[in-house]
């Protein structure tokens, strides 16, 4: 039971970090290219227009991967500096 709780907390934290990273950089890119921006909620859980289960799942997986990479890079920079 503790493993399930730990994995859930792990997923929530890194999903949020990854979605934040995507939202910041993609919104900067969209401002520079004059394209319409998306809300943070769309980066966190996918678009509401898509009713496909895997769309929200893929957003979560990519957010967790990006969150892990971002956290790893930040930790490396802290150790090096």
Report on the structure:
This protein has 81 residues and is mainly alpha-helical. It has one domain (2-80). The protein is built from three helices and no strands. The protein has helices spanning 2-32, 40-45, 53-80. It is flat. It starts with a helix and ends with a helix. The mean pLDDT is 88.
Radius of gyration: 15 Å
Number of strands: 0
Amount of helix: over 70%
Helix-strand pattern, N to C? HHH
Mean pLDDT: 88
Shape: flat
What is the number of domains?
1
Q: Counting H and I runs of at least 4 residues, what is the number of helices?
A: 3
State which percent range the strand residues make up. Answer: under 5%
Q: Tell me about the biggest sheet? A: none
What would you say about this model in short?
By secondary structure, the protein is mainly alpha-helical. The chain is 80% helix and 0% strand.
What topology emerges from the helices and strands here?
Layout: H1 2-32, H2 40-45, H3 53-80
Attribute tags:
0% strand, 3 helices, 80% helix, mainly alpha, single chain, 81 residues
